[in-house]
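ok here's Cytochrome P450, seq below lol
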Amino acid sequence: SLRPGRLPPGPTPLPLIGNLLDIPRVRPWLGFNDMAKKYGNLMHFRALGRSIIIINDPDTVMDLFEKRSTVYLSRPQTILSSLYVSQIAHAPFEQCNHVVAFRTGWEWNMAFFPYGPKWKHYRRAVWAYYHPDVIAKYYPCQTENARRLLSKLLSDDTRLVEHVRSAIGATLVTITYGVDVTMDSSDTLLSTFEEGVKSIQLFVSGSSVLEFIPILSRLPTWLPGTAYLRDLARTRQATYRMRDVPWNAAKEALSEGRASESIARSMVERLSHLSDDVDLGEEMVARDVSAISYAAGIDTTHAVLCNFFVAMALYPDVQKAAQAELDAIVGQSRLPEFEDRDNLPYINAIIKETLRWHPAAPLGLAHRSTEDDIHEGYFIPEGSIVMVNVWSIMNDPAVYPEPEKFIPERFFKEGRIDAAVRDPFAYLFGFGPRICPGRHYADASLFITIASVLHTLNIHPPRDSNGQPIQTELRTTSGLVVHIDNYRCTVTPRSATEELIRNLD
Ligand code: HEM
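and the structure came out like this:
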């Protein structure tokens, strides 16, 4: 292994607690962005015995995550990912983590697996259903639900945020399990998933006290101040239900011959070719992989689409330009289809700008290094938690002038998408072999939803009781996946295409 050398620059650590006080608690990407001006594009922090590396620029991302990707393939051994019993024996910390992993019920989610054969196996299984050559299968369902969303928005825009979420959720559940879901939060399967995913934020690195002080999970639950442990027990049940209930429903539908084409059906059919008795190990993988789509796909896609609505309300000229493009290419007698996409550069620029403007996962998902490494003379110790400040990269004023403004035109040159401009799609979905396997599917969802909405609706700012637009300072949430949470858009039909929505009913 390499000889330890100078660590990358960063604030001076204190005895015992290291840089714990230097790590920003709320919207850390903003604080890290400021610190990078002082310390540079590769920063080092120390907290509770771990090195935390923050990358602030595309070149360093490329060098570490792409060129030396095998070093950065793992995930932090958080409370979530300590899955391997074999690892427990020689790591007391991990052992506590392991206890909590089972308490939280997230030990089956491959997004948190450490690097190893199990991750590879799951990853291959997910990718088989989401790589670009197969996702066109899902277009009809994505299109249908984008259109159902239009009627819902028209009938009640006070629940816009919820309607958008149900539309994405219903599509994910339908393509995965092949069962009917009503596009409403009261649907049993949708609400099972919603209960399950609530707990994700709790367990992501840094957001839980248990993360830094895992021994807390050992306390007996009758002690005062241990309410979080009882919460854990409850959320664990919810997490298991989201994994098991839809899977069992899909199997039942299959055995009764009423299952439509779906990811679950194709997995079960493949299993039954393996042997007469379904191999339980493989069935477990199929069940886990099925549930991952919702767990990983809902908050992210929802955040991006909510930000899209806010952008449209704030930038009416962008909306008008997009509608002019849609009128010219799609025309007013039908709704947009996937086949239109290549002819809609302005819509495509809006998608890029939406991803960039308020990045949905501003620090991505943490990686962990599994070997010592050296980058430009700086030593990156094995076991470092490595994160990319995607927010910084997407707000670099040298690349995106006036980055706080929503300007789709920044991606254009002479009426076409300019390949020379840094593409948000290459950053928002992560890096290296752990890049989001759902990115092409997610991109398709964004396209059909955004095109359908712009074609038929006008989006406006929130209004007060006198119908006057309300001015608000935008506020984003903090956490793994973030969105603007204090801006409720309103919608009205576009007169030119209103008939198209009415005809859907
Ligand atoms: C706009 C929507 C989405 C965004 C912004 C997004 C973003 C991300 C990011 C940043 C990562 C971490 C990559 C890394 O470690 O470097 C990730 C991982 C992942 N995403 Fe997505 N994602 C989205 C939608 C989806 C969808 C729809 C699915 C499922 C079909 C999905 C499945 C996954 C899975 C399974 C992982 C874990 C990969 C691994 O650890 O090997 N994502 N996503």
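fwiw The first helix runs from residue 28 to 39. kinda neat tbh
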